[in-house]
Design brief:
Radius of gyration: 16 Å
Strand content: 15-25%
Largest sheet: 5 strands, parallel
Distance between the termini: 35 Å
Shape: globular
Helix content: 25-40%
Number of helices: 5
Amino acid sequence: MQMQQSFERPQLPLFDAFLANASGEPLVTDDIAPGEAEQAFSELALRGAAGHCLHLLAPILRELSQNQDARWLTLVAPPASLTQSWLRDAGLNRERILLLQPRQGQSALELAEEALKLGRSHTVISWLHPVERTTRQRLAQAASSGGAQSLNISLG
């Protein structure tokens, strides 16, 4: 059976297309209150060898770094394997990326929330694990107030 693809579909929120089954119902649901905040938070879990996970992550980050939005792609407390040379080799637009590390006494969650609320980034990527319902809600609300997208990546 061959499926036809329509290019006139409305833009879906970040990663919703990957999380929908054939009937269009989401495979993953959150307990976040319905509305804008629900669409402002996404999660991606990658398991396996670190090199393979980074290989799968590269095109996603590349696409986000080349976003036409004039705001930043912000990476909050990325893993040590995401070096400047890896970003360059993966073809990311490094002029549009901010790498942020939490200061002493500040958590990665607090830094991600702050970056989202400021609204200077189109997407703020965090590497938090585990992400509980309250953390999802906090990130979604911060993203919604800043007009941004929050993406949490779990590498295993």
